[in-house]
């Protein structure tokens, strides 16, 4: 796509302009981002998903047993019968993994790296429903799917922003409203991280939240160092060969500057290993939300070839995540938290695997005759990231 072309989705500005002026910086309200948008799911279908064991869902009731009562799914049909007429919200996570028409919405966000996209959460709110004023640590596009919702936005928050005392929900104790809008189906509000927001259903409504993933600095450091440590031997230690003796004028108990420098050097040596850093990052960013849904079966190379030659189609498991990159030794394919190094010659296959809706004899072409190519496909089937489409 050409990032300089104005996009309806972004209210007539280009992806370049959006990224320069708004992304991670300031909110943007877009009227009719998706003109005539009709929610592919109705409220009953969304409630149906919240009955499923594997799908994460929540209900927030403003005046429940406690103020802002949080209930966690899976729910039963009775739960829904007993809910009040107004002032509650049902939120269902990662609906894109279960409803292909919802996943198709992600096509609109091709101007952003796919590995930054987390999921599409869908909320249904009874009139007056909302989850309270709060802030999130990630970017979000709030697309109105059905009915009308009033979105109020406020101050930029941080870890010190006072919250209500609540065991489960992070509701702001103060909300300094700066703007409000009523969104109709097809309207969309982009919010950067940490902007206080408060959505209230004007009438029965559904909102689609396209959320993004960004690891916290603490996650990057703890996870990367855990990953790194696997490759380090116990023998590699802080070392100070050639250090000078404690001089008479110095205190033996003081940790001197040269010790700190040695430590920094040890850290830098490992932290700046780009191959390992990228390997860890790709694995981390492609970890599936529901790993139990990414499970495949071993397939014999001959059977795989036969199936594809007979017209079988491989598709990405909707719960799997794929990405690729390149390092000094070749290409890296990341699939659902795992990685493999591949030669430069497999670049086109890698790109096809990551991007294609379906893999079949026609688009695989010559790769079917390539043993390494088939081996890779077989590995991804075994891992569960690729699966045969149902006939
Ligand atoms: C909602 O859809 O009710 C909540 C979405 C959000 O505020 O992040
Ligand atoms: Co939010």
UniProtKB/TrEMBL annotation:
SUPFAM superfamilies: Clavaminate synthase-like
Keyword hit for Lyase: no
Single GO cellular component term: ribosome
A single GO molecular function term of this UniProt record: 2-oxoglutarate-dependent dioxygenase activity
Cofactor list: Fe(2+)
Protein keywords: Dioxygenase, Iron, Metal-binding, Oxidoreductase, Ribonucleoprotein, Ribosomal protein
Record-annotated JmjC domain positions: 101-229
Record flagged with keyword Repeat: no
Highest taxon listed in the record's lineage: Bacteria
Protein name per its UniProtKB record: 50S ribosomal protein L16 3-hydroxylase
Organism of derivation: Pseudomonas panipatensis
């Amino acid at each position: 796509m050409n990032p300089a072309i104005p996009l309806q989705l972004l209210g007539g500005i280009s992806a370049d302009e959006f990224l320069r002026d708004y992304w991670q910086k300031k909110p943007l309200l877009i009227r009719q981002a998706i003109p005539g948008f009709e929610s592919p799911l109705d409220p009953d279908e969304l409630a149906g998903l919240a009955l499923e064991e594997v799908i994460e869902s929540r209900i927030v009731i403003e005046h429940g047993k406690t103020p802002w009562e949080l209930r966690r799914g899976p729910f039963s049909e009775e739960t829904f019968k007993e809910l009040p007429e107004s002032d509650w919200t049902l939120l269902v996570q990662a609906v894109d993994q279960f409803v292909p028409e919802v996943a198709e919405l992600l096509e609109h966000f091709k101007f952003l790296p796919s590995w930054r996209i987390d999921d599409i959460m869908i909320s249904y709110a009874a009139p007056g429903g909302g989850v309270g004023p709060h802030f999130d640590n990630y970017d979000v596009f709030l697309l109105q799917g059905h009915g009308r919702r009033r979105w109020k936005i406020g101050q930029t928050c941080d870890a010190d922003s006072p919250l209500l005392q609540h065991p489960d929900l992070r509701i702001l104790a103060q909300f300094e409203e700066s703007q409000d809008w009523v969104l109709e189906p097809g309207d969309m509000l982009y919010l950067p991280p940490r902007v206080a927001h408060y959505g209230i259903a004007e009438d029965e409504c559904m909102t689609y939240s396209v959320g993004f993933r960004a690891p916290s600095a603490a996650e990057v450091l703890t996870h990367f160092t855990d990953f790194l440590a696997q490759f380090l031997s116990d023998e590699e230690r802080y070392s100070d060969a050639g250090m000078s003796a404690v001089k008479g004028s110095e205190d033996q108990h003081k940790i001197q500057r040269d010790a700190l420098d040695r430590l920094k050097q040890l850290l830098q040596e490992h932290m700046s290993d780009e191959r390992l850093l990228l390997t860890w990052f790709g694995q981390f960013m492609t970890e599936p939300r529901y790993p139990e849904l990414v499970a495949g079966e071993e397939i014999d190379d001959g059977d795989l070839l036969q199936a594809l030659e007979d017209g079988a189609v491989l598709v990405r498991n909707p719960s799997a995540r794929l990405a690729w990159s390149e390092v000094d030794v070749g290409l890296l394919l990341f699939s659902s938290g795992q990685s493999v190094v591949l030669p430069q010659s497999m670049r086109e296959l890698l790109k096809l695997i990551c991007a294609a809706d379906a893999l079949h004899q026609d688009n695989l072409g010559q790769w079917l005759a390539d043993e390494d190519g088939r081996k890779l496909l077989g590995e991804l089937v075994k891992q569960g990231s690729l699966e045969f489409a149902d006939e």
